């Protein structure tokens, strides 16, 4: 079995998480294997978020978030 670490960047790029007003949101369509990881991230604060970057996060929510 090939186990790789799961990082926030990979989850974000795959659309399993997004950031809304600085808070991490998990996709409700995620497979069960990701539920523990996503549950631990959902509701946490994203330190990368600042108002000046909000347009990027809006784009991600509309185009990548599942």
The protein's oligomeric status is single chain
The average pLDDT score comes to: 90
Q: In total, how many beta strands?
A: 2
**Unreliable stretches, pLDDT < 50, 5 or more residues?**
none
As laid out across the biggest beta sheet, the strand order is 1-2
Output the structural class: alpha+beta
What share of residues are in beta strands?
5-15%
Give an overview in words.
The chain is of the alpha+beta class. The chain is 36% helix and 12% strand. It has three helices and two strands, in the order H-E-E-H-H. The chain has helices spanning 8-14, 35-41, 54-63, and strands at 17-20, 23-26. Strands 1-2 form a two-stranded antiparallel sheet. A hairpin with a 2-residue loop joins strand 1 (17-20) and strand 2 (23-26). The termini are far apart. The model has no long low-confidence stretch (mean pLDDT 90).
Quick gist of this model?
The chain has 66 residues and is an alpha+beta fold. Helices cover 36% and strands 12% of the residues. The protein has a two-stranded antiparallel ribbon.
Offer a few descriptive terms:
2 strands; single chain; 12% strand; two-stranded antiparallel ribbon; alpha+beta; 3 helices; 66 residues
List the helices and strands and how they pair.
Layout: H1 8-14, E1 17-20, E2 23-26, H2 35-41, H3 54-63
């Amino acid at each position: 079995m090939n186990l790789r670490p799961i990082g926030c960047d990979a989850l974000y790029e795959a659309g399993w998480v997004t950031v809304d007003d600085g808070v991490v949101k998990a996709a409700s369509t995620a497979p069960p294997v990701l539920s523990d990881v996503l549950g631990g991230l959902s509701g946490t604060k994203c330190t990368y978020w600042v108002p000046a970057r909000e347009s990027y996060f809006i784009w991600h929510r509309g185009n990548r978030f599942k």
